[in-house]
Design a protein that fits this description.
Helix content is about 50%, strand content about 15%. By secondary structure, it is of the alpha/beta class. It starts with 7 loop residues before the first strand and ends with a helix.
């Protein structure tokens, strides 16, 4: 029975009589324990401490979040700083290429002549090439740091490459009285390797050895096969452990301490004794070497002791298939091309052409040098950037545009794109010059429609030869068109694809000579190409628009018919699809400088 917590009373009298003074019984019902005051106090304390813990956890979570954001900010700042460093290296390297071009070009021209000071010029040439090698190393280092280093390996005999790099330092060894020796396997050693990257690796290691070896010292290069060259390499911990080629370069110079061995492959690190020996370096050579070796799936180790010398041990794995992505798997057994570039012999000056060449270059010195090279054989105009070049291309209609890529306002790629997309200029070949020598940049230029691509510094003789080749090819195409349409003998040789396209276009027009409704749209439809594509092709071959091309074929066929002397002028006009006689006479007069009737008369007299 539930009873409220309160007093309840009822008066009772004896013998069923009510008493005047009632008796009282007090009953008090206590609450359950979970409704007691101390229970509620506990509840309050629990809530208080729970709130405190929640607040503490929230603050800790926020603090952790702030720490993560701060670390991310620091990482972003560090990445930005690294990017700025790499951009600095890249920009400096690109800037160095232009003055190198201005030095290397004239020197190569002088070195190829019988100049009385040829020996001194050759010395300057060699040092300039060394400077160029350093620039290329900076660019390679930048690619490696950003993960863009590509290994273009070929399968072949590596021994000739090692021998040629060894011979580069032979004269230096003799001058310094250094005992310089090489030991090679008495057999062909074939594996996948990138010859240009291997040259950088070996040149850096040998250069390092000579740098720290005093006169009268000793340097050795030893190559040996570990395991079998006919079996696939075995790797442990990402390093070749069996079936690999080991190349050891040992010097007996100043050596290094154990502490320095751990840092020797770090970027920008230079050994402590470089200051003592007054030796300067970039601090990127060995770092680049390590990255290039690892890109070949190989490894490099170093052993050294103070005053006893240093040994670099290079391991390259054997494999019958490419071990690296982005590898060009080409098999060859030819000896590697000489690393020492020979001076190009003197060539006879090109015959003076009537061709017009537009040079677009922002740097005044290089612009003047390019003009000096070209004006010997061509009519030359210059522009200071892409915008100026575009205006002059429209106005002057050159036969060739030579343009730098990196320019202010509008660069060479933008200029090339404009030239190739505009019907008035799409036939003009574009020759891009650039300090950006990477394959990806070359592909980018060619995709924009460039006809030729050449890296700085360039050889002026090679540049001239490429310019002449482009212009002569265009001249041959136009000559072929002129001779083909007039059915003349001795047609010049032109590429089969170009020849097929031209002949197809001419055949379509020929088949519709009497069709007065034949238009450009009809030609485009029958060719199965876009109007812009066929326009570019015909313009580049003939120098004419599609309307002019069709009209030219009609008029030249009219000239052939008039030469026979059997048809009247009105009949000829109808046969070539021109109904308007006034228009026919006007166009014929403009083309041949005589009226149709006079032309027929002259041809008839020549036959008599």
């Amino acid at each position: 029975m539930l009873v409220n917590i309160r007093s309840w009373s009822r008066p009772v009298m004896g013998k069923e009589a009510w008493s005047a003074k009632p008796a009282e019984i007090k009953i008090r019902v206590l609450p359950p324990w979970y409704k007691t005051w101390w229970a509620f106090l506990i509840y309050a304390l629990i809530l208080f401490f729970a709130f405190k813990e929640y607040q503490k956890a929230t603050l800790a979570k926020q603090a952790l979040k702030n720490d993560v954001l701060m670390e991310k900010y620091k990482a972003d700042q560090e990445k930005t700083l690294t990017d700025l460093k790499l951009r600095f290296f890249t920009n400096v390297s690109h800037e160095l290429r232009t003055p190198l071009t201005l030095i290397l070009g004239p020197i190569e021209e002088l070195a190829s002549s019988e100049h009385e000071k040829k020996d001194k010029i050759m010395l300057i040439l060699q040092q300039t090439r060394k400077l160029l090698d350093l620039v290329n190393q900076l660019l390679d280092f930048r690619k490696a740091e950003t993960g863009n280093m590509k290994i273009l390996a070929t399968f072949g005999n590596i021994i000739p490459m090692i021998e040629e790099v060894f011979l580069i330092f032979k004269l230096k060894a003799q001058e310094s009285s250094i005992d310089y020796t090489m030991s090679l396997p008495q057999t062909t050693v074939e594996l996948f390797f990138d010859s240009s990257k291997l040259e950088i690796i070996l040149t850096n290691l040998l250069s390092n050895a000579f740098k720290y070896t005093p006169s009268g010292g000793k340097i050795s290069l030893k190559t040996e096969i570990v395991g079998s060259s006919s079996e696939e390499a075995v790797f442990e911990g990402g390093r070749p452990s069996k079936n690999f080629l080991q190349i050891s370069i040992q010097d007996f110079g100043v050596g290094m301490s154990v502490d320095e061995l751990d840092k020797i492959f770090d970027p920008y690190y230079q050994a402590s004794h470089t200051e003592t020996l007054k030796i300067r370096g970039t601090g990127i050579g060995l770092s680049l070497v390590k990255q290039l070796v690892e890109a070949h799936k190989g490894s490099i180790e170093v052993e050294s002791a103070i005053a006893k010398g240093t040994t670099f041990i290079l391991k390259l794995p054997f494999s019958k298939k490419p071990l690296v992505e982005n590898t060009e798997a080409e098999h060859h057994h030819e000896e590697t091309k000489s690393l020492v570039e020979e001076v190009i012999p003197v060539v006879a000056p090109l015959e003076k052409f009537s061709a017009k060449v537009l040079i677009v270059e922002d740097q005044e010195d290089l612009r003047a040098y390019l003009k000096q090279i070209c004006e010997v054989s061509y009519e030359v105009a210059t522009a200071v950037d892409g915008l100026d070049g575009w205006d002059k291309a429209l106005e002057w209609q050159p036969d060739l545009i030579i343009s730098d890529i990196m320019m202010p306002n509008s660069d060479g790629l933008e200029l090339c794109q404009k030239v190739k997309q505009n019907p008035k200029t799409s036939h003009i070949p574009v020759f891009l010059l650039t300090a950006r020598a990477a394959v990806t940049h070359e592909v980018e230029g060619l995709e924009m429609g460039a006809d030729e691509y050449m890296a700085k510094p360039f050889n002026p003789l090679v540049l001239n030869a490429k310019i002449a080749s482009i212009l002569q090819n265009r001249s041959q195409l136009r000559s072929y068109y002129q001779k083909q349409i007039l059915l003349e003998p001795s047609l010049p040789d032109i590429p089969d694809e170009t020849k097929a396209l031209l002949e197809k276009a001419m055949a379509i027009v020929e088949a519709n000579l009497t069709n007065q409704d034949f238009t450009v749209q009809t030609l485009v439809k029958d060719m199965g190409m876009s109007q812009s594509a066929i326009y570019r092709q015909i313009k580049s071959i003939t120098g004419q628009s599609l309307v002019e091309f069709i009209r030219d074929i009609r008029l030249k066929r009219a000239a052939q018919l008039l030469s026979n002397g059997n048809l009247r002028v009105t009949e000829v006009a109808m046969l070539v699809g021109i109904e308007d006689m006034k228009y026919f006479r006007k166009m014929f007069q403009q083309t041949y400088n005589v009226s149709p009737s006079e032309y027929a008369k002259q041809k008839k007299e020549n036959l008599m």
